[in-house]
Amino acid sequence: MLHKRQQEIQQLFTLLSDEKNDPIILHCTSGKDRTGFLSALIQLVADVPIDTVLTEYIRFKCL
Fold first, then answer.
1. Domain ranges in the chain?
2. Contacts of 37-40 spanning 24+ positions with Cβ under 8 A
3. Which of 33, 28, 29 is nearest to 57 (CA)?
4. Which pLDDT score is estimated for 33?
5. Is the pTM of this model over 0.85?
6. Per-residue pLDDT in tens (0 to 9) along the chain, 63 residues
7. Would you give the distance in Å from CA 7 to the centre of its chain?
8. How far, in Å, CA of 22 to CA of 6, rounded?
9. Separation CA 20–CA 7 (nearest Å)
């Protein structure tokens, strides 16, 4: 996804970087893969420790 959806990911981060768009809700309607991946990227950019990001990603993937 990171390589195939670069334009969409860039659009998301452009949207997130503009304070006039706050607050933003990120949700999914049919699965966790794309939303979970994007949530993990956002957390990593926000300096959340990678161990925390991975633990939470795995925890919610298994629900």
1. 32-63
2. 37/1, 37/2, 38/9, 38/12
3. 33
4. 79
5. no
6. 888 989 999 999 999 999 999 998 888 776 567 888 888 999 999 999 999 999 988 887 666
7. 14
8. 23
9. 21
The CA-atom distances, in angstroms, between 25 and each of 7, 8, 35, 39, 51 are 20, 16, 11, 11, 24
Burial-class residue 47 by CB neighbours within 10 Å (0-12, 13-18, 19+). exposed
The pLDDT assigned to 31 comes to 59
Q: Within 13 Å, how many C-alpha atoms sit on residue 9's CB side?
A: 16
